[in-house]
Amino acid sequence: MSGLILLVVLLVFVAVVVIKSIALIPQGEAAVIERLGSYTRTVSGGLTLLVPFIDRVRARVDTRERVVSFPPQAVITQDNLTVAIDIVVTFQINDPAKAIYGVDNYIVGVEQISVATLRDVVGGMTLEETLTSRETINRRLRGELDAATAKWGLRISRVELKAIDPPPSIQQSMEMQMKADREKRAMILTAEGRRESDIKTAEGEKQARILSAEGEKHAAILQAEAERQAMILKAEGERAARYLQAQGEARAIQKVNAAIKSSQVTPEVLAYQYLEKLPQLAEGQASTMWMIPSQFGDSLEQFARAFAKQDDQGVFRYEPSHVDDETRQMAGDEDTDDWFNTATDPEIAAAVAAATAVANKPVDPELHELKAQKKPPAPAAEIEAPATLDPVEDFGAGGVEKREPETDY
């Protein structure tokens, strides 16, 4: 029985010795090994053999890169304002032995050094500089921490200011200031926009007035030219009308003379007509008295002696002169169909088409070119004279009738 107990105790002792002789260190960790209370070596990542009851694992250290966020720290700026700043430190343990033997608690050490360095850096800056100089503060904090923690076996890879919180009153004042700045910029932009709008409007009105003046100028020129052409045509027409009227009167006189010659009127008939018209002459409003000369009969006698021949009985009788064929033809009816011919004169139609082309000429050539690209202009042959005009046929330039003067009276 005692032998069995001794065997069990021996087996237990062997198991304890085996357990004390083997240490399993995971990847990403390092173990500090002491022998009889003294540092011997640092092992990591694997199975490690120890001397039982002589070697022991003092501490296991995480060698991965760690990110530690510290609580907000109250810092006073140069302009005596208290701000709360959150710090995030990223570090890695390069020498686990120094991290164990060099400092009691490296996390607390990093925190305290960060706070002290932060207060030193921010204390030399104003609040506005603190809010706008994050990169400078991060760089200085990293440099100070890296230099202070090198003897602890730490490597500071990154330091960031997570948040900078000014007091509520200062924050409210800053918000009001930012709001005022934004309103100021908005008012400046609005004023600039109105200024640009007024300038563009003024330029547009200027161009509109210039174009309007150009249009009025061209319209006045065209109107003056139209009035000039109208006066010329009217003068030409009046001249042609007077010429035709004179021609008509001459023709009428010639016609009456030929009719009288053809009818062979005797002096007795003329005398009778003369006596028949005397009462009508006396009926005029201005005729209050009519006197017949006493020698009226003698005058008729002399007229008869001059144009008549005395017959066998001593009476003067009028013998009409011989009427030739030309006089008889002139006294006859004439063809008057072409007197009122209103056919269109090609020259007048061409003048009207030219005036219409001038009136349709655009004021702005550039705008006309843009419109011409969209729609081709109508051919000149398609321009027609207005239908309201009634030009007279057989008239030349200026409306004068092309007729040879009649000299055969």
Automatic annotation (TrEMBL):
SUPFAM superfamilies: Band 7/SPFH domain. InterPro entries: Band7/mec-2_domain, Band_7, Band_7/SPFH_dom_sf, Band_7/stomatin-like_CS, Stomatin_HflK_fam. It is a single-pass membrane protein. It holds the Pfam family Band_7. It is found in: Membrane. Its main location: membrane. Residues 400-409 have a biased composition (Basic and acidic residues). Keywords: Membrane, Transmembrane, Transmembrane helix. Residues 20-178 form the Band domain. Residues 365-409 are annotated as: Disordered. GO terms for cellular component: plasma membrane; side of membrane. Belongs to the band 7/mec-2 family. This is Band 7 domain-containing protein. It comes from Corynebacterium humireducens NBRC 106098 = DSM 45392.
